[in-house]
Write a structure and sequence with these properties.
With 376 residues, the protein is an alpha+beta fold. Helix content is 40%, strand content 23%. It binds alpha-D-galactopyranose. It is an enzyme of class 2 (transferase).
C-alpha cells in the first residue's frame, strides 16, 4: 500500500433499495438506505493540478492532470475517477490536485451501487479539499452526470442521492422529480438483510437501456389520452386501464408501464406502513414488488426468484425482493432483528442446495456519508 499522509478521511456508503425499483428514471418514488459498507477515501490535497489515485482493491494506480483528464475514454475504473473530477469541473468548480487512497468493502457489480459510492465520495472529497460543501442533491447530480457522461451508464438519480443524503438509522423516501427527501426511521427491531446471489449482473447495461426506452414508448402512447403526462410517474392505474380498454398497448409495453405505476403506489404504501410499524405489510409490498419485477418488468432471474422464495418461507422474514437493476446481483429482505442470525445461517445451505451457488448475506444498519479530520 502506498503511504499517503491523510489530511482527511471520507467514508461513502453503498446503497440498498428497500422498494421503488426502476421508478427513478420515470420521475417516481424510491425508498433506499445507505449501507454501512462502502468506499473509503484517504485524501491528501496537493498544491498542483495532479490527481493521483491508488485503487487499493485493484492494486492499480492512476495519475492525470486536471486540465487534461481524457475522462470517459478508458473503459475501466479510471472512467469513474476521472469522470467524477471532470463532472465537477464541468459544473464550474475549481479544483486542485490530490493524492487519494481508495478502498472499500462493497461487492463490486453486485447491485449495491459501488460506482455511485465511488463517485459521490470522490466528488465530496475533491470539494472538501477546496473547503467547499454543497447540498446533497447537487452532489448527487454531479455524480450522476459522471456516471452518464463518462462511465456511459444511463442511470437515474436514486443511487447517488441515497448515498449523498442518507441519514443514519433511516431509510430515505425520495421523490425523484423534485428530489425532496423524507427520512423514515428504521426501528431497532427491524433488520435489513442484504444477500448477494453470486450471479454476475450480465446484460444489465443493454437491458436497462431497453427498459428505459420501453417506458418512454409507454409515455408517448399515454400522452395521446392525456397530454399533460410527462413521465410514468404522472400515470394512474385508472388511466392505464383506460388505455388497455382502447387497445392502445402492445402487451410488453403495457406490462412495463404497469410495473412502474404499481411500484410507485407500493412505495407510498410501504412508507406509510413503516411509519405505523406494520412491517408485515411492508414485507407483503416487497414481495409484490419482486413479482412485478419478475413478471411485468422481466429483470429477475431463476436465482433471484429462488433466493427470495427461500427467504419468504423462513420464520422472522417479513418480505424479500431483488434490489437494484436486477439481472443478477443482490436481494434485500426485511427481517425481525431477533431472527436475523438464524436466517443467515439457514439461507446459505438452502440456496446452495437449490441452485449450486454460494450467496453472501449480511445485515446492515442505515448509515451516512462521513468525514474524519485529523486532530489538530
Ligand atoms: C440502477 C440505476 C438506478 C435505478 C436502479 C433500478 O441501480 O443506477 O438509477 O434505476 O437501477 O431501480
Amino acid at each position: 500500500m502506498t503511504e499517503v499522509k491523510a489530511a482527511f478521511f471520507v467514508r461513502s456508503p453503498g446503497r440498498v433499495n428497500l422498494i421503488g425499483e426502476h421508478t427513478d428514471y420515470n420521475a417516481g418514488f424510491v425508498m433506499p438506505l445507505a449501507l454501512e459498507r462502502g468506499t473509503t477515501f484517504q485524501v491528501q490535497p496537493r498544491d498542483d493540478q495532479q490527481l493521483i489515485v491508488h485503487a487499493l482493491r485493484f492494486n492499480a494506480h492512476d495519475q492525470a492532470d486536471l486540465a487534461n483528464l481524457a475522462a470517459g475514454t478508458h473503459g475501466d475504473w479510471r472512467d469513474y475517477v476521472r469522470g467524477t473530477a471532470q463532472a465537477l469541473l464541468d459544473a464550474g468548480y475549481a479544483l486542485q490536485g490530490a493524492e487519494i487512497n481508495i478502498d472499500g468493502d462493497l461487492p463490486l457489480s453486485g447491485g449495491l451501487s459501488s460506482s455511485a459510492s465511488l463517485e459521490v465520495g470522490l466528488a465530496f472529497s475533491l470539494l472538501h479539499a477546496q473547503g467547499i460543501t454543497i447540498a446533497p442533491a447537487e452532489l448527487a447530480k454531479i455524480a450522476q452526470r459522471a456516471e452518464i457522461e463518462y462511465a456511459h451508464v444511463n442511470c437515474g438519480i436514486m443511487d447517488q442521492l441515497s448515498i449523498a443524503a442518507g441519514v443514519a438509522g433511516h431509510a430515505t423516501l425520495i421523490d425523484c422529480r423534485s428530489l425532496e427527501i423524507e427520512a423514515v426511521p428504521i426501528p431497532a427491531e427491524v433488520a435489513v438483510l442484504v444477500i448477494d446471489s453470486g450471479v454476475p449482473r450480465t446484460l444489465a447495461g443493454s437491458a436497462y437501456n431497453q427498459r428505459r426506452a420501453e417506458c418512454e414508448q409507454a409515455v408517448a402512447i399515454l400522452q395521446q389520452l392525456d397530454p399533460s403526462i410527462n413521465d410514468l410517474r404522472d400515470v394512474s392505474s385508472t388511466l392505464l386501464a383506460q388505455a388497455v380498454e382502447q387497445d392502445r398497448f402492445e402487451d410488453v409495453i403495457y406490462r412495463r408501464a404497469r410495473h412502474v405505476v404499481s411500484e410507485n403506489e407500493r412505495v407510498h404504501k410501504a412508507a406509510a406502513a413503516f411509519r405505523t410499524g406494520d412491517f408485515g405489510y411492508v414485507g407483503e409490498l416487497m414481495n409484490e414488488s419482486h413479482w412485478s419485477l419478475r413478471d411485468d418488468y422481466e429483470v429477475s432471474g431463476p436465482e433471484l426468484d429462488q433466493l427470495t422464495e427461500l427467504l419468504r418461507d423462513m420464520a422472522g422474514v417479513w418480505g424479500a425482493r431483488l434490489t437494484g437493476a436486477g439481472f443478477g446481483g443482490c436481494c434485500v429482505a426485511l427481517v425481525e432483528a431477533s431472527q436475523v442470525d438464524t436466517v443467515i445461517a439457514a439461507l446459505g445451505p438452502a440456496y446452495h442446495a437449490a441452485t449450486g451457488r454460494t450467496c453472501e448475506a449480511f445485515s446492515t444498519k442505515a448509515s451516512a456519508l462521513t468525514i474524519e479530520e485529523p486532530r489538530a
